[in-house]
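I hope you will forgive my troubling you with a question about protein structure. The matter concerns a single protein, recorded as an amino acid sequence and a row of backbone structure tokens. Please examine both parts with care and let me know of anything in them that strikes you as inconsistent. Thank you for your consideration; the sequence and its tokens are set out here:
***
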Amino acid sequence: MNLKGEEDRASAGLAPGAADRDYRDLFALAPDAYLVTDGQTIIAESNQAAAAMLKMDRGCLQGKPLTHFVAEADRPAFHVNLIQIREGGEKRNWEFRLQSGQDAPFPVSANVSAQTDHRDQLVRVLWLLRDVSEGKAEADRLKSLLKGIKSSFHGIVEAVASAVEIKDPQTAGHQRRVAQLAVAIARELGFSLNRLEGIRVAGLLHDIGKIAVPMEILNKPGELSQLECEFIKSHCQIGFDLLKNIDFPWPVLPAILQHHERLDGSGYPAGLTDKDIILEARILGVADVVEAMICTRSYGPAQGIDQALEEIHQKGGILYDPEVVNVCLKLFVEKGFCFN
């Protein structure tokens, strides 16, 4: 007899067995569904929440297998996981669907623990079940909302990108082609899908600052004066300032600001060098140069793909990131890249 245990209970003002009754009351009244089963999921005990979840009286649940309530489509995976629980002891945040009678299946999250005796023989399995159908429905609603927001966002990006092309028809398609080449380069460099989306957006918006440059400068044939060159160079900072209040989930703003920076510090607007220029901007810089040389502009005819590739090849490591240059050359020479 455990005299010490009896003394502790007496000192706490509890009669023998009172603590057990308190634990059983907590078990019965807990808001989450609790079940005690054997290794074959035969229900030995359940609380009120479990009975309500499975829509049966607690007395009627006793002796029934929990697998009886598992949605038929989920049973194969359920049995596989049950074997792992018997062998490994526990499983947390396990999701499957339950079904009561003819009602529709509903998802639950389960924390399960197998208990063994001193001979390591399985004696019971404890189940904590939570109905997560409301959370799933809310997640679906949020997913749908996010999809709508994403669609609207991309529509706005396309509209903003088109604004520059409306003002300067001769460069129509330039931003889209730069975005296309930049994404192709970034993909070869191993960018994730999310990061690829970011460089696509940066490519579509990289020249948005030109909307503030006078038309007569944008479309002027021949050489520009020093003052006119300064107007053109201002488009990087203007683009940054126009979009700086948008909280992009990618480094779109620094990519726009830095896409004319060069490794040797000869670029603009800040004269950054080497690693101070983010990779997205270095990719855009190469894509921008190649596209500009391939396509006709008001200030001169197209120079052609050969000259464009020669330009980046000769100045790779000097002006342009050498790895980006090598990938760009590979795309055109070995993989037959062409603009849509």
Remarks:
- The chain has 15 helices and five strands.
- The CA atoms of residues 283 and 324 lie 6 Å apart.
- The chain has a mean pLDDT of 86.
